[in-house]
Amino acid sequence: MPELIAALASQDWDLQWAAADALGAIATLEAVPALVTALDHRSGIVVNAAMRALHSVGSAAVPILLEQLEK
Predict the structure, then answer these.
(1) I need a labelling partner for 17 at 20 to 30 A (CA). Which of 4, 34, 55, 64 fits?
(2) What is the pTM of this model?
C-alpha cells in the first residue's frame, strides 16, 4: 500500500494513473488523502482514476474527504 501511495505522488503520470487505478481496486481508507490530492492533477486520466478509486472506497471516505477539502 505505501508503494502505491508513493507512486501516486511520482512525476510519471502513467505511474500515477496506474497507482490510482490499483488503489481503486483495493478500496482502502488509507489512500483517501493521496487520492484527494490527485484530484488536482493536470491529467484528466489521473483525475478520473482518482475519482473512480474514491468511489470504490465508498461512503466511509466522506469524513476524510471533507477533512481534506477543508485544508
Answers:
(1) 64
(2) 0.81
Q: Work out the average pLDDT over 55-61.
A: 89
The helix/strand/coil state of 19 is: helix
Question: Can you tell me the distance from the alpha carbon of 8 to that of 3, in angstroms, rounded to the nearest whole number?
Answer: 9
Q: What is the phi/psi pair of residue 40, to 5°?
A: -95, 5
Q: Which of 31, 4, 2, 29 is nearest to 15 (CA)?
A: 4
8 and 35 Cβ atoms separated by less than 8 Å: yes
Residue type, 6: A
d(CA 17, CA 70): 25
Q: How confident is the model at residue 60 (pLDDT cuts 50, 70, 90)?
A: confident
